């Protein structure tokens, strides 16, 4: 995570924008919003009473999947996250974004349909492009 979010990150803002399809400031705003909106994104303890993933790690996994189209198991190496957890991050993220931002700019692109997870992924792909401009 230090590669992007440390005080002196390894990668530039341009590299961040290229890899995540948005500015770092927008990314961090989304992290803050989803963490405040849904407690699933808040850091806690897992079933083994060990620290769970941070909100930053969970959102990084979800947005990276949306930005690149890579499968959930891609997060194994960089985030040390299982495929199952990566998939959960994506599903919770899409649901939370649809609920949190439902009446905002993202919906201006689409008609009023049920917000299924697949539909939320479509919204995010459209929305990330729109919000990054």
Separate helix tally:
7
Silhouette:
globular
Q: Could you state the order of secondary-structure elements as H and E?
A: HHHHHHH
Q: How many domains, in number, for the residues?
A: 1
Subunit organisation of the chains: single chain
Helix content: 55-70%
Low-confidence stretches: 106-114, 129-133
Major sheet size, sense and barrel closure: none
Beta strand count:
0
Mean pLDDT: 80
| Secondary structural class | mainly alpha
Terminal CA distance reads 24 Å
Radius of gyration: 14 Å
Protein name: Harbinger transposase-derived protein
What does it look like?
The protein is an all-alpha fold. It has one domain (2-132). The chain is 59% helix and 0% strand. It contains seven helices and no strands. It has helices at 2-5, 13-20, 24-37, 55-68, 75-78, 83-101, 117-132. Helix 4 (55-68) crosses helix 6 (83-101) and helix 6 (83-101) packs across helix 7 (117-132). The longest helix has 19 residues, at 83-101. The model is unreliable at 106-114 and 129-133 (pLDDT under 50).
């Amino acid at each position: 995570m230090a590669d992007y979010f440390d005080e002196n990150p390894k990668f530039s803002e341009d590299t961040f924008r290229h890899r995540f399809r948005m500015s770092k400031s927008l990314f961090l705003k989304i992290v803050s919003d989803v963490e405040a909106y849904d407690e699933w994104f808040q850091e806690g303890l897992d079933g083994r009473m060990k620290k769970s993933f941070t909100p930053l790690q969970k959102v990084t996994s979800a947005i990276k999947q949306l930005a690149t189209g890579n499968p959930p198991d891609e997060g194994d190496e960089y985030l040390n996250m299982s495929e199952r957890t990566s998939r959960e991050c994506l599903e919770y993220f899409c649901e939370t974004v649809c609920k949190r931002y439902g009446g905002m700019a993202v919906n201006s692109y689409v008609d009023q349909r049920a917000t299924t997870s697949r539909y939320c992924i479509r919204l995010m792909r459209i929305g990330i492009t729109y919000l990054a401009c």
